[in-house]
Design brief:
Elements lengths: L1 H23 L6 E7 L6 E7 L9 E19 L4 E18 L11 E6 L4 E7 L1 H5 L9 H11 L6 E4 L6 H5 L5 E11 L6 E2 L4 E2 L4 E7 L2 E4 L10 E10 L6 E8 L6 E9 H7 L1 E7 L7 E9 L8 H9 L28 H6 L1
Antiparallel strand pairs: 1-3, 2-3, 3-4, 4-5, 4-6, 5-7, 8-13, 8-17, 9-10, 11-12, 11-14, 14-15, 16-17
Organism: Hemiprocne comata
GO molecular function: calcium ion binding; calcium-dependent phospholipid binding; phosphatidylcholine binding; phosphatidylethanolamine binding; phosphatidylinositol binding
Family: Belongs to the extended synaptotagmin family.
């Protein structure tokens, strides 16, 4: 299959990624891929998990532990600035979800295939000419790390690649599914965190300036920093859309803010299936990967209703908590799907050329 997967990837680069990059910035309007060769070393699937509970009977959900270490050759150029750069090798390690749906009674038995990562994969890219690329106006504020984050997030939920296998499948519903629910995260407080700041060349152990980074898929929130406190109280609220479960998790990392490099204070991973089952969790969680520290969270699972009959009740309940979130708590979700456009005006650049 690998040569055909490579053909698909090349098509994806040229027909989807290239136009997206050109449209992202005026300075990139002449961006193009001059060569795309993914190499002859296929990706490895190190493990497969198939879900049999809490899934629709007209779909099959697979989680693939994938590992790709490939010597590829991808060359790109920005003609306007005579800039050339490329990629010599790529490494990707992570959990890719594959959804086969809808299952149908005729060959090929599967209506469409959807691919995405549940969380940001480990991605390493060996560049050539990256300095040239970062010298382009509009890109000089970027870095290698920021570019990797942009590429990684392109692969992570709610972004997905959907391949129709039969003509009558409703591709829009598969590419842009309605979220399964909303997770309301009350990021309350922590206790007994490690003191990372030191004085007198490390003789005196001080306190920390803790803050948290909260992730659900590619949705990322960052709390405020509490100065010099090992028992910080944040009392902040965030809301994240949950598109896939089982499988999606709430990821939290705590750090001590420092002028040079922030110190790690612990992490937490919570399976959202448990939150959905309980509907409301208000607990102290022991932090992982550190010797001490606890985090107090209140997690609410909110189900989406197809009608507005309970809207007044919801509005009344959130008014009582309106000061908790920076931009207020949500009462409803508006989903817009942009289908197509017609009779658009011709660009003045193109008109002048004609």
């Amino acid at each position: 299959m690998w040569p055909f997967i490579c053909q698909f990837i090349e098509k994806l680069f040229r027909e989807t990624i290239e136009p997206a990059v050109r449209g992202a910035n005026n300075h990139l309007s002449t961006f193009s891929f001059t060569k795309i060769d993914i190499g002859n070393q296929p990706l490895r699937i190190n493990g497969v998990k198939v879900y049999t509970e809490n899934v629709d009977k007209r779909q099959i959900i697979l989680d693939l532990q994938i590992s790709f270490v490939g010597n590829c050759e991808i060359d790109l150029e920005i003609k306007r600035y005579f800039c050339r750069a490329g990629v010599k090798s790529i490494q990707i390690h992570g959990t890719m979800r594959v959804i086969l749906e809808p299952l149908i009674g005729d060959m090929p038995l599967i209506g469409a295939l959807s691919l995405f990562f549940l969380r940001k994969p480990l991605l390493e890219i060996n560049w050539t000419g990256l300095t040239n690329l970062l010298d382009v106006p509009g890109l000089n504020g970027l870095s290698d790390t920021i570019i990797l984050d942009i590429i990684s997030n392109y692969l992570v939920l709610p972004n997905r690649i959907t391949v129709p296998l039969v003509s009558e499948v409703q591709i829009a519903q598969l590419r842009f599914p309605i979220p399964k629910g909303v997770l309301r995260i009350h990021f309350i407080e922590a206790q007994d965190l490690e003191g990372k700041d030191t004085y007198l060349k490390g003789i005196v152990k001080g306190k920390s300036d803790p803050y948290g980074i909260i992730r659900v898929g590619n949705q990322i929130f960052q709390s405020k920093v509490i100065k010099e406190n090992l028992n910080p109280k944040w009392n902040e609220v965030y809301e994240a859309l949950v598109y896939e479960h089982p499988g999606q998790e709430l990821e939290i990392e705590l750090f001590d803010e420092d002028p040079d490099k922030d110190d790690f204070l612990g992490s937490l991973m919570i399976d959202l299936i448990e939150v959905e089952k309980e509907r409301l969790l208000d607990e102290w969680f022991t932090l992982d990967e550190v010797s001490k520290g606890k985090l107090h969270l209140k997690l609410e699972w909110l189900t989406l209703m197809p009608t507005a009959e309970n809207l007044d009740k919801v509005l009344t309940s959130i008014r009582a908590d309106k000061d908790q979130a920076n931009d207020g708590l949500s009462s409803a979700l508006l989903i817009l799907y942009l289908d197509s456009a017609r009779n658009l005006p011709v660009s003045h650049i193109l008109r002048d050329a004609l």
